[in-house]
Amino acid sequence: MLAPSSNFPSALAQLLVKSELRRQFRSNPQAVAEQLNLDRETRAIFCQLSADQVDRQAHGLISKRCYEVRQILPQTWSNLEPQEARDLFFRFAETYWPEGHNRHRLDALAFCEFLDQTKTPGLVRAEWNWLDFCLSRRRFRLHFVRDLKFGTRPHTGIQLFYRRSGVPRWFVIRFPQFGR
Amino acid sequence: MQNENDGMREMSSGQTGQRPQVGLSYRAALGGWIRSQPEEIECLEVIAEHFFEGPDDLLLSLAESYPLFVHGLGLSLGTPGALHQETLRHFERVVRLADPKWISEHVAFTRSDEVDLGHLNPIAPTKTTLDTFVEHARELSEVCRKPLILENITSFLQLAGEMSEPEFLNRLCERANCGLLLDVTNLWINSRNHQFDPLAWLDELEQPPILQLHVVGYSYSRGLWRDSHAEPIQDELYDLTREILNRFAVDAMIIERDADLPPVNQFQAELRHLAKLGAACSSPAPDRGSRKVEVS
């Protein structure tokens, strides 16, 4: 259901976040303007938007989100094929828009949850745990993990997270590896 | 009435014919070099949102070492209605700690009532939008008790309206009593993607009371120019910067590199290049009715 938009930024924002609305806009901008209940001045500007340019702007917004999340989850990202990672993120990004000045980390956290729910191989739980702790208000947390990254191979170990003067810090105990 | 901003003319080095100061936008990865106070860095811009949750001691230390400018990303001055109060409160706190020469935001919107888009989007250059911007710009400047400058953005969208972008900026600076943060790269990118002459765009612009520049290399992929903030400054951007310096009195130039940070010596070379350009073009622009920015 579309929220009625009384102003242009609101109408444009809805267009930018909803791919289905952009498809409708491409074939009939007047009908979308009608659905959004735009006033006359706003409708005139809205209907003159280029559908191609709107698609590019929308794609650009998600690309920027994708770039930020990649910086926050480098290990998980490197486990996925580059195009696969982008495709997954674009699929995820349609369903969730983070808010506030922590938006990039919230975006990364929600993407981890998406990968977990879709059982996508490659999610590094050690990375997810740390991000979750940083965004929480918890003072202490312990995790047993099998994907601590040291060198090129994952290791089993314990992550210990704590806060000192409010700043999150971490400590890991890596278990020795036997065999190969 | 005497207030802390009565020294605007002295602060505005461009107006007195001095070379514009050159500097960088602070990035944590460059922190060690920046804190060593190299001679090439004369001023520093900090992103307000990066300091919303501290570290305060770093911000205070930077403020002691450099003339600072505080640059906002998420106040969304183009959204009708009240400014987002939590963001405004965080922003004001950073400004209070940093005590910058001026503060800046964008001629854009990032959020609506329904969604936070998180990045900058264009506004329609209409009288209604201008009224919204004037109201928000005045409020922001008054809350922070600092002069405000506003930045042009890049956008794949070109919006119809009642006036051109330069005309909108002229009226905004005049009515809101604010300055301009002219992003050279954004202007260049928009001119390529939307096929207009950036010099004709500059010809429409009036001298604002404060003029800061942003510059960083553009990227090009899949037939479009993009603001990746990840490339060294290309020659055509230095050329456009020279055109701006020849037309307007500029107060400061900031390199706004975000990604793929190069070795320090590349930054040093870029800073020196901009300083040299500034020195070569440092005569003040003809008086076109320049206004003193005051904060009540």
Shape of chain B: globular
Uncertain runs of chain B are 1-13, 285-296
Largest sheet of chain A: 3 strands, antiparallel
- Cα shape of chain A: elongated
User: How many distinct beta strands of chain A?
Assistant: 3
Strand content of chain A: 15-25%
State the helicity of chain A in percent bands: 55-70%
Strand content of chain B: 15-25%
Q: How much helicity do the residues of chain B have?
A: 25-40%
The major β-sheet of chain B equals: 8 strands, parallel, barrel
Q: Give me the strand/helix succession of chain A.
A: HHHHHHHHHEEE
Mean pLDDT of chain B: 90
Write up what this structure looks like.
- The complex is a heterodimer of chains A (180) and B (296).
- Chain A is an alpha+beta fold and 180 residues long.
- Chain A contains nine helices and three strands.
- In chain A, strands 1-2-3 form a three-stranded antiparallel sheet, covered by helices on one side.
- In chain A, strand 1 and strand 2 (153-164) form a beta hairpin.
- The radius of gyration of chain A is 21 Å and the shape is elongated.
- Chain B has helices at residues 8-11, 31-35, 56-65, 85-98, 127-144, 165-176, 184-193, 198-204, 235-247, 264-280; strands spanning 21-25, 43-47, 68-71, 102-106, 109-111, 116-121, 148-151, 179-183, 211-215, 217-221, 224-231, 252-255.
- Chain B has an eight-stranded parallel barrel, surrounded by four helices. A two-stranded antiparallel ribbon of chain B has the order 5-6.
- In chain B, helix 5 (127-144) crosses helix 6 (165-176) and helix 9 (235-247) packs parallel to helix 10 (264-280).
- Chain B is globular and about 45 Å long.
- Chain A binds chain B through residues 3, 5, 7-10, 12-14, 16-17, 41, 44-45, 48-50, 53-54, 56-57, 60-61, 64-65, 67, 97-101, 103-104, 166-167, and chain B through 49, 52-55, 74, 78-80, 86-87, 90, 109, 111-119, 121, 123-124, 126, 128-129, 155-161, 224, 226, 259.
